[in-house]
Design goal:
alpha+beta, 33% helix, 23 strands, five-stranded mixed β-sheet, Rossmann fold, Herpes Virus-1, BirA Bifunctional Protein, domain 2, seven-stranded mixed β-sheet, globular
C-alpha cells in the first residue's frame, strides 16, 4: 500500500457530505453561514468523543462533578465576566457590498489594537477589491428577548461560552456534593458566537459545542494543577482519541496574547488542513472569575479550608476543547488514501472506540435466503454484544469493503457459501485488509477482544 499526500479541506468536506458526517444546516434553503448539522455518522462520532471525554474528565475522578447549565443566563453574569464590555473582535466592512471581515485577519496580525490594525490596512482593499471602512470593535454575543416585550429590560444573550454557568453553580455544587479543594466542575454544552467571518468548515462557526472543565484550587497549588491538566489534554488526544503526536504541538500565550486575568495559557495546536490552529486550551484563570461574580452578585464565593483554617477565593485551571474542532481534527488525522490491488481507496483509520460502526455484516449475495438468514442471526448477536453494527448488502463485496473503509468501520464480517458448509465466516481488518476465517460462534468474542486493543 502507498499512502497519498496530505489531506486537504476539500477531501474532508467531500467525505463529510458524501458519507453522512456533516451537512450544511437548512441546505435545501441555501444554508446559513456558520451553522452545520451532524448526519447519522457524525452524530455517532460526536457522541463517542463526548462519552470518552466525560469518562476521562468526570467518571475517572472522585472530585469532579458534572453540570448542564441553561443556554440563557441572567445577563448580569455576562457583565460580571467582562463579556458585555470586552467580548469583541476588530471588524472592517467593504464599503461597496457591505461584507464584513475580521480586521486582524485581513491585516495578518495577532494584535487587536485598532490603531495598529488601521496602519497595517492602510491603502488595502477588501477581498472583492473595494475600499474598506475604518476598523471598529464588534461584540460577538447573540441577543434575544425573554417574555412578550422586546425592550432593554427583557434583553438576554445566548451564552458565548459554557464556563459562566459553571462559576455561578460553584456554591450549588459545593453545598450539595460537599467536595474539598481541589475539585472540578465539568460541562458539555452549546455556545453561540456571532463570528464576523465563519470559515474553514466546522472549525470556526457561530453555534458550537464545548467540553469544558473548571478546576478549583488553592493558589499555592497552581503550578502542579496547571501541569496536570496540560498533561491530561495531551494524553487524551494522543492516547484516548488516537491523534498522531506529529500533528500536535504546544503554543504558549505571550503576555500580550493572554486575557487580562490569565496567569498562564497554553493551547494545543493541531495541524489542520488549513494549517496549525488552536484545538485545546489549558488556562490559569487566577481567582478572577469567582472574585468578579462574588462582587457582582453579593454572594460569598470564597472557600474555607477547615484543616488549615484559611479562607480564600480559589484559583481556577480551565481545560476546554470544542467538539466541532475535535471532530475536524479526528477526521483530518484519520483520513488517508492508498493503493490496493491497483485501485485507490480512501480509508478513515479511526480508533475503534471512535468509529460510528464497530463492524459491518454482509451476506455475500442478498438474494440467497440461506446466506441472509445466517448473516441476520450473526448481525443480531453482534448488535447486542458490541454495539453499533451495520448491515450492508448493497453492491459487490469489493465495493462494500471500500465503503466501510471510508467511514472508518474497523471490521467487515462476510457470510459466504463456505459459511453454510463449515459454519465459518470471514473477518476483514480495515487497516491491514487481512481476511481471516473464524467460526461464527467465535466472532463476538474475537471482535470484542480486537475492539479493546
Amino acid at each position: 500500500m502507498m499512502k497519498a499526500t496530505k489531506v486537504t479541506m476539500e477531501d474532508i468536506v467531500s467525505l463529510a457530505k458524501r458519507r453522512g458526517f456533516v451537512f450544511q444546516s437548512s441546505e435545501i434553503y441555501g444554508g446559513i453561514s456558520g451553522f452545520y448539522d451532524y448526519g447519522p455518522l457524525g452524530v455517532e462520532l460526536v457522541n463517542n468523543l463526548k462519552s470518552l471525554w466525560w469518562q476521562a474528565s468526570v467518571k475517572d475522578h472522585d472530585n469532579i462533578f458534572g453540570v448542564d447549565g441553561s443556554i440563557i443566563q441572567n445577563p448580569l453574569l455576562w457583565q460580571a465576566s467582562g463579556h458585555v464590555a470586552g467580548f469583541t473582535d476588530p471588524m472592517v466592512e467593504d464599503t461597496v457590498n457591505h461584507k464584513r471581515y475580521r480586521a486582524d485577519q485581513l491585516a495578518q496580525t495577532d494584535s487587536t489594537d485598532l490603531h495598529e490594525i488601521k496602519e497595517l490596512l492602510k491603502d488595502r482593499k477588501s477581498p472583492d477589491g473595494n475600499p474598506l471602512s475604518e476598523p471598529r470593535y464588534f461584540n460577538m454575543m447573540m441577543q434575544t428577548w425573554v417574555g412578550p416585550v422586546e425592550d432593554a429590560s427583557s434583553m438576554v444573550y445566548l451564552r458565548p461560552e459554557t464556563a459562566g454557568s459553571i462559576f455561578t453553580n460553584f456554591l450549588n455544587v459545593r453545598d450539595t456534593m460537599r467536595p474539598k479543594i481541589p475539585f472540578g466542575i465539568a460541562q458539555i454544552g452549546k455556545a453561540f458566537r456571532n463570528e464576523i467571518s465563519p470559515r474553514d468548515f466546522i472549525f470556526r462557526v457561530r453555534e458550537l459545542e464545548q467540553m469544558e472543565l473548571q478546576y478549583f484550587i488553592n493558589k499555592s497549588d497552581q503550578e502542579n494543577a496547571y501541569s496536570q491538566w496540560r498533561n491530561f489534554a495531551w494524553n487524551f488526544l494522543k492516547e484516548t482519541v488516537g491523534i498522531s503526536e506529529s500533528n500536535l504541538s504546544w503554543h504558549e500565550h505571550k503576555a500580550e496574547e493572554r486575557a487580562h486575568y490569565a496567569v498562564a495559557a497554553h493551547d494545543i495546536y493541531f495541524n489542520f488542513p488549513q494549517g496549525p490552529k488552536e484545538l485545546w486550551g489549558t488556562h490559569n484563570r487566577s481567582d478572577f472569575d469567582l472574585t468578579s461574580h462574588s462582587k457582582s452578585s453579593g454572594k460569598d464565593l470564597s472557600y474555607f479550608d477547615e484543616s488549615s483554617g484559611e479562607r480564600y477565593t480559589p484559583y481556577v485551571i480551565e481545560s476546554s476543547v470544542g467538539v466541532g474542532r475535535l471532530v475536524l481534527a479526528v477526521l483530518s488525522d484519520a483520513y488517508s488514501t492508498d493503493t490496493l490491488g491497483g485501485d485507490e481507496r480512501n480509508v478513515l483509520r479511526l480508533k475503534p472506540s471512535l468509529s460510528p460502526y464497530k463492524a459491518a455484516v454482509s451476506p455475500l449475495l442478498k438474494n440467497r435466503p440461506e446466506l441472509v438468514a445466517f448473516a441476520s442471526k450473526l448481525y443480531t448477536e453482534l448488535k447486542c454484544g458490541i454495539g453499533m453494527v451495520l448491515w450492508d448488502d448493497n453492491g459487490n463485496i469489493g465495493k462494500r469493503y471500500r465503503r466501510q473503509d471510508e467511514i472508518g468501520t474497523p471490521f467487515c464480517v462476510t457470510i459466504d457459501f463456505q459459511s453454510l458448509d463449515d459454519g465459518s465466516v470471514t473477518i476483514r481488518n480495515r487497516d491491514t485488509t487481512i481476511q481471516t476465517r473464524v467460526a461464527a460462534d467465535k466472532v463476538l468474542e474475537t471482535l470484542s477482544l480486537e475492539l479493546k486493543k
